[in-house]
Amino acid sequence: MTATVTAPGARRIRVFGKKAVLPWVFLAPGLLLALVFKFVPMAKGIWLSFFDVRPFLGDKWVGLDNYTRVLTDHRFQDAIGHTLLLGIGMSLGGIVVGFALALLLEGQARSLKIVRTAVFLPVVTATAVVGEMWRLLYYPTSDGLINQGLGFLGLGPTPFLDNPDTALWATMVMSVWMLAPYNMVIILAGLAGVDRTLYEAAAMDGVSLWQRLRHVTLPAIRPALGIVLTLAAIRGLRVFTEVYVLTGGGPAGSTEVWMTRAYTLGFTRNDIGGASAASVVLLCVTLLLTVTVNHFRKRGDAR
Amino acid sequence: MSAPAIDPVRTPVPSAAVRKAAEPRRATPARFDTALGWSDRPSAAWALRILLCAIALGIFAAPFLTIVSGAFSTHASGSSLSFLPRDSTMLNFRVAGERGIWDYFTNSLVIAGGALLLQLAVSVLAAYALARHRFCGQALILTLFMLTMMLPEEVIAIPLSLVLGHVPVVGLDLKGTAWGVILPLGAWGFSVMLLTEFMKDIPTEIEEAARLDGVGEFRMLWQIVLPLCKPALGVAGVLGFVMIWDQYLLPLIAAKDPTDYTVTVALSILRTDPEVGSGVVLAGALIALVPSLIVYLLLQRSLVTGIAAGATKG
């Protein structure tokens, strides 16, 4: 009696076992790497944010001290303002310029494809290279390339990156320059999906170009715009390389953003606990933003 | 939902083009092909479009000429920068070479090659499991990979540098080695997602027939599924390369001393060196630019397809 019951059961377990183990063999390398280099550091960061990290003395539990210290530090508070301004500016600027580029360069003609290829260059170029290039474009004397252009317009030379009033805006312009062609590609994919007969119908109804854009094109590419905005906002919050290579946070901390501040705290001043707390705050804001945007997007799609 | 209903991986041509090819004699005038209704015949609007295209090129592409001209001119000091070189010389490259630019470049190539291979291998294996097998915890694993995509590298940089100095369990010190940059880049959610989506669409019949012939799992992946995935591999490869070449913070924290830097990070060394001018920095920038340029021009279609794919998939 017992034998007849256990025998099929055992076989099922063995078969199940082999079938069940196989996918995990394939998944193992990816999961292992993600675990060691993504999730362990994340957990460690959250853990360390509650400690005063002292290399040879052992870590000391300090509760929320790191968080209060970071959040009340006026340089971090300035950095929040800069990060938000830069993030919002580059997201909106990137969308507006990207949309304009997409409208301008939409089409199948060969010449348009070549222009698109050239315009897309900033996206594939490493940020560090772009930064070095823009440092020279922004050269402060009247011989600098952009200042030469301003000279033609009768404007005096501006020390873009050396002036605390202009440095953040200059960084924003470069970020928009890098982001816009990327958005252009996504928006172009959206534009390609718009039903052409709608344009024809609109023309028959004698609708103006502006109304056509507003009521036919824009609703059709709204999902694409939503994606572009989410990606840009997240990218804006965690911005690091752009600022680090272009201004290094200066002059006088006028371009210091959240991540450059955390980097300085962690690696220059060796305050691992404070830097971890700053990172955790950013992580929470990013996750919150992603979840919120996804929520609204789903609701918008359902409608 | 009015989302663009194109599957960008399998139909790299925008759907408008597909539709046009399918019904070539549809009587929609060219002016309805674009949102703004550009006409392709000479007119005022046509001239305006050419002018605007020229401006766009001037803003987005022309600045790259300053890198080229600056790198080849004798006294490029930001102040004498122009689009065209006045005199050409290789001096800047020689000086950059003396400063070790080729060593940094080699570091970059080793890291990019290694990380790309690892990334593709890891993604293919994981995607095969996720797309072709059914097992419990599948949704969770998918979410985990998605998380690795959303988790900004910048946020985990500080604890990651500690992990790199002392890898848990095995206790290795990866700092100062290429592995310190390569391994953290191995698990990239985006390419796992991309390949999973692609593999899901491969018909199961081929696989079932092969399975009846007694083909094992690894041979199945290597000889049957993988060859069918070539287009998706191209997309994952080119996007992976661009992503790896753009890494800045990771090589910075994984380095023990400046000789471990990649070429992009090393540009800051050239810049802060008081003995070399901006011509040398631009020579370095040009060296760092060329590989991404080559990859882009060769695999442009895959790249653009991939970005649109990420967008339509969310």
Describe the structure.
- The complex is a heterodimer of chains A (303) and B (314).
- Chain A has 303 residues and is an all-alpha fold.
- In chain A, 76% of the residues lie in helices and 1% in strands.
- Chain A folds into 2 domains: 2-36; 68-302, MetI-like (MetI-like fold, Orthogonal Bundle), CATH 1.10.3720.10.
- Chain A has helices at residues 2-48, 65-72, 74-105, 110-119, 121-124, 127-137, 145-152, 167-192, 196-204, 209-220, 222-237, 241-246, 258-268, 272-302; strands spanning 51-52, 60-61.
- Chain B is mainly alpha-helical and 314 residues long.
- Chain B folds into 2 domains: 30-95, no CATH class; 100-313, MetI-like fold (Orthogonal Bundle), CATH 1.10.3720.10.
- Chain B is 65% helix and 0% strand.
- Chain B has helices spanning 15-22, 44-60, 63-72, 91-98, 101-132, 138-150, 157-165, 179-186, 189-200, 204-212, 217-228, 230-245, 249-254, 263-272, 278-298, 300-313.
- In chain B, helix 6 crosses helix 9.
- Mean pLDDT of chain B is 80; it is low at 1-27.
- At the A-B interface, helix 1, helix 3, helix 4, helix 5 and helix 6 of A face helix 1, helix 2, helix 3, helix 5 and helix 6 of B.
